[in-house]
């Protein structure tokens, strides 16, 4: 009689322990960031928590990228602040709702995969521009001062703000807390692993809260309105603002930037783990559903956030359960402990966002890009500077336009070979791609050919000849031909 080995049943939730632990880590990372992004965006702190809750529970339950975590993003702070200042909080809800519906439509139409075609330099330039404006704007909160409206004004006014702070006790206290918060975030990664069990952002804000309490620092604290009191669905009359050109432009900017940032983040997260790869169209649907819910609740827009997502992967998450549970922890905190928010110093949150903004500026990548691909580096810099100097939407459009022009220019590889044997016709062979971008060079070379000799123009080597080039070549051939010489003989493919 043979003995049978007893079969060990497979656990129903084999990754529950790992996902539970990861969810706590992500919650602790997300909490100060949700509040900080909301305050920097000029809206009640609770709205940042609401977006984090929706990003965890609603978007987290949907398919797309299994380990990516969504919530309010530092990358949209500048745009949200401008939208609230110009159109008001009710219209922000309309814009966020419309953004979500557009993302759902794009996901259903399978547009998500095409976002991978956007130049990485444009996206990095966009994030760099956002980072610079974010740093400059939040420095005024660190200095307990009011920030100018424009990006250039924010940067230009910083020296004066620093000088003014030297004569104010409250400003110096605020600066000390903000600088201390940034210092903790910078040096946190150098501490022993046991100390780093607490995420850096939470530790930095917690230490700032402790310092403000112990020294009774005269600094501004977060205002608390209560979770339910902060939920303000947009009224019906606010939807009429969608007919405004300014609102439509902001809507397009929200949609493009939120979608691009989420999908590029998904690509980065995929490189961090060996689990299932991202389905870009499904991820766009998930982001759209989350933004639609946020819009209905009058909350902030969401994107996938690389800081939380990387924390999720590094904490050992295996399934999407970790991000859903992080949303539950945010909900429990907002419902049971909202009064704790009133003890958070504003300069500490500003310090967290200054640090986050600095991470958006890819200094090392730019140096490497300048060595290897100067054209791409130029696009990155011009996009970033345009965002600072003009606005977010126009800056991204300028970057995209430059990227298209650069690609078209590089695609216009054209070679003109002249064969002149001293007697008989001059032979001109064109090969490559003849586009309007290289037209001046082609015409300069052809017009330099001898006027008293017959010319044979061979176009069989061309892969592409656009309408502008064809018309220009025909006009040149007509001008070159005269009664004294034979007409230009053109051989085409």
UniProtKB/TrEMBL annotation:
Protein name per its UniProtKB record: SulP family inorganic anion transporter
Taxonomic lineage of the native organism: Bacteria, Bacillati, Actinomycetota, Actinomycetes, Kitasatosporales
InterPro entries listed in its UniProt record: SLC26A/SulP_dom, SLC26A/SulP_fam
Domain SLC26A/SulP transporter: 16-383
Transmembrane segments: 20-40, 47-67, 87-105, 117-140, 171-190, 202-222, 242-269, 328-357, 377-405
Pfam families: Sulfate_transp
Claim: Membrane is one of the keywords in the record: yes
Annotated membrane topology: Multi-pass membrane protein
Primary localization: membrane
Protein location: Membrane
Keywords: Membrane, Transmembrane, Transmembrane helix
Alphabetical list of PANTHER family matching this protein: SULFATE TRANSPORTER (PTHR11814)
